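Morning run. Coffee first, then this:
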Amino acid sequence: MALIIPVRGFTPQIGRDCFLAENATIIGDTVIGDECSIWFNTVIRGDVNSIKIGNGVNIQDGSVLHTLYQKSTIEIGDHVSIGHNVTIHGAKIRDYALIGMGAVVMDDAVVGEGALVAAGSVVLSRTVIGPNELWGGAPAKFIKMVEPEKAKEMNVKIAKNYLMYSKWYTGE
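And here it is:
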């Protein structure tokens, strides 16, 4: 069973039909929506400020979510995919966005609806990525626009796949 740690009077809230890997750690002021999957070795550390995660989100193995004390929060929309070993620190990720493996998204950055951040990218603090934009590199820069329907379709498919994979672990 995942490690769920209350801190500073906040107990994590987990929605219905979520998969929490047995060694995931979820701390403090964290709210996770319905039908999410939180994978192995992921740390969602809502100890210093709030972390809010929408519905149908998958946060893959080894990812770390944290914030700045009294300064930044994390808000993740619906049907977002967070790849393996991603660090999100105090950023906003809108619906249907995808954050590629090993990416870093820093404080007060905004990743727009349907946007994609390429694997290994570093999105600097206060960067605003518009809807349906593909950004990549370190530091991340605009690469091209992505067709809105393709981005949405891809991210819904990934989110549903991760929900399916989670059933393999729960015997459902």
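The chain is about 15% helix and 35% strand. Good start to the day.
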